[in-house]
Design goal:
single chain, alpha+beta, four-stranded antiparallel β-sheet, two-stranded antiparallel sheet, 6 strands, 43% helix, elongated
Length: 180
Amino acid sequence: MLMSAIRRTSFEVVDFREDVEQLATSAETLLGYKALRKSTEAPLEDKVLRHTLAALCIDTLIAADVETYQRERLLETTRAALERWAATVTGEIKPYIVFHGPRWEDTPIEQYAEAIPLHVVERLVRIKERLPEVNVTIVHLEETPDPFARVWMGKDIYRPTESFWVDVWEEPRFEAARQR
């Protein structure tokens, strides 16, 4: 059964740093344990995007739902493309006749040429204003729209320190559910 909705989640910033710093001071003073103090001196860089989204009250799509949907959609479009391709193949199939199915592309927003709804652009602008080093990409299926806006931190898209799905559009099943 194909997904009919992708759930959203929001973040609440819980800053327990002050409590941990007090505990670190007590542990160092009473126990001579200094490792906790060193860990509290490190910045919370690994959660900076999560904190930014929470501060801006921006909810995100649940990653497991997005991955399930993308897998379902990829299978659906690949089957359709394979049927169209098979209908064009005539005669004996040679080893050099190859089928290439659609794939999900991760395009930096500055290279994305299609229209993005204003409410999505507004969210992405707010995030980028608050966190200039954030990366913004549009993940879309090659042969059909189905774009998702994704924000992520890190140097490498394949190993981000944080990654969140901000929105999806041009998906008829979700658009119908949103309008109800």
